Amino acid sequence: MNLKRILRVSVTRSLLVLSLALTPFSLFAATPLDINTATAAQLAAVMSGVGEKKAEAIVAYREAHGSFNSIEELSNVKGIGNALLERNKALLQIGNENISE
């Protein structure tokens, strides 16, 4: 009996810790990310198919050319193509305006 209780408590606590650890990522996914203010780490965490290098390239492009006016401008960043843009459209916004609308 004691072993069953220990296992049950351990599993319950592990699931709680895991759900709390994943909460920041789920918060990013729930709210579209503003590509004009997001950090490279935020872009990499939210965008599917975008790692740290591509995210840094997005931020560098934004710093060199100014704010993005549309999602299509992301295709000017090396390594960002139409398929990647389509896959991430619902996750992104410019300011308060959702790009996918």
List keywords for this structure.
3-stranded mixed β-sheet, 101 residues, 3 strands, elongated, single chain, 56% helix, mainly alpha
Describe it for me?
By secondary structure, this protein is mainly α. 56% of the residues lie in helices and 7% in strands. The chain contains 4 helices and 3 strands. The chain has helices at 2-30, 40-46, 52-65, 82-88, and strands at residues 33-34, 92-94, 97-98. Strands 1-2-3 form a 3-stranded mixed sheet, covered by helices on one side. β2 and β3 form a beta hairpin. α2 crosses α3. The longest helix is centred in the N-terminal third of the chain and has 29 residues, at 2-30.
State the helix count.
Answer: 4
What spatial order of strands do you see in the largest sheet?
Answer: 1-2-3
Label the overall shape: elongated
Strand residue percentage:
5-15%
User: Which sequence of SSEs, written as H and E, runs from N to C?
Assistant: HEHHHEE
Give unreliable regions as ranges: none
In round numbers, the mean pLDDT is 83
Cα-based radius of gyration, to the nearest Å: 19 Å
Oligomer: single chain
Q: Based on helices, strands and strand pairing, what is the structural class?
A: mainly alpha
Distance between the termini: 56 Å
Share in helix: 55-70%
Topology overview:
Layout: H1 2-30, E1 33-34, H2 40-46, H3 52-65, H4 82-88, E2 92-94, E3 97-98
Summarize the structure.
With 101 residues, the protein is mostly helical. The chain contains four helices and three strands.
